[in-house]
Amino acid sequence: MKRILRVVRILPLLGILILLGGCLYDNPPTGPSRSIDTWLVGQWQTSTKTGSVYSAIVAPTTASDHYHVIFSRPGSSSQEFDGWISRVDGFSILVLKALDGNGANDAGGAGSVGKYLLCHYELLVPGTPPPGGIGAERIRLSELQLDESTRTLDPFKLRAAIRSALKSGTLLAPFDTVAERKGKLEALPGSIIWTKTGGVTLKGETF
């Protein structure tokens, strides 16, 4: 069932996600704490103001609590991640672990293998529908506002830092409700909006 989820922000990795200027973490806050949400599964696309197009495929794995995620863009090697949803005090976090060092000429490069991205995401209202059709699903990924010193913390201390930022209201960038209501979704600092372009089929079931 589709639901709006609160998760943590995205940290652009090897350059495929350099749409945001984030950092990579040495550890995740926790391992999987719930099964995957199937509405996240599918093919997604976003583009920069300069016209560069980024694509993502999010597929379930044989485990019920992991995703296999592939990011790609024209003219660049794809980058693969193991993904899962963790929680800190009920706050959902999409964790992406880099599985390869593709994009060595981009930020991160081979040194990003085994590092983690922490992503806040939320489901947005469908985009403008085509005539007689239904608007495409969209998600917004936003970057976590933790101090740079948290990059190397162990899971216990990282969770403490997340709890502290949640309590102080600084974990996510300020939400511009006025801009949101006017449809200026890109105005939210540190955000990337992805649009669903297709589904993924696994064992005869399409997500």
Order of helices and strands: EEEEEEEHHEEE
Strand arrangement in the largest pleated sheet: 1-2-3-4-5-6-7-8
Give the rounded overall mean pLDDT.
75
Number of helices: 2
- Shape call: globular
Low-confidence stretches: 1-21, 103-109, 177-181
Task: Give the class from helix and strand content and strand pairing.
Answer: mainly beta
Strand coverage percent: 25-35%
What is the count of distinct domains?
1
The strand count comes to 10
Q: Over all CA atoms, what is the radius of gyration? A: 16 Å
Measure the end-to-end span. Answer: 11 Å
Biggest beta-sheet profile = 8 strands, antiparallel, barrel
Helical percent range?
under 10%
Helices and strands, with pairings:
Blueprint: E1 42-47, E2 53-60, E3 67-73, E4 76-88, E5 91-98, E6 116-124, E7 138-143, H1 155-168, H2 177-181, E8 191-198, E9 201-202, E10 205-206
Detailed description of the structure:
This protein is globular. 34% of the residues are buried. It has 207 residues and is mainly beta. The protein is built from 2 helices and 10 strands. The protein has an 8-stranded antiparallel barrel.
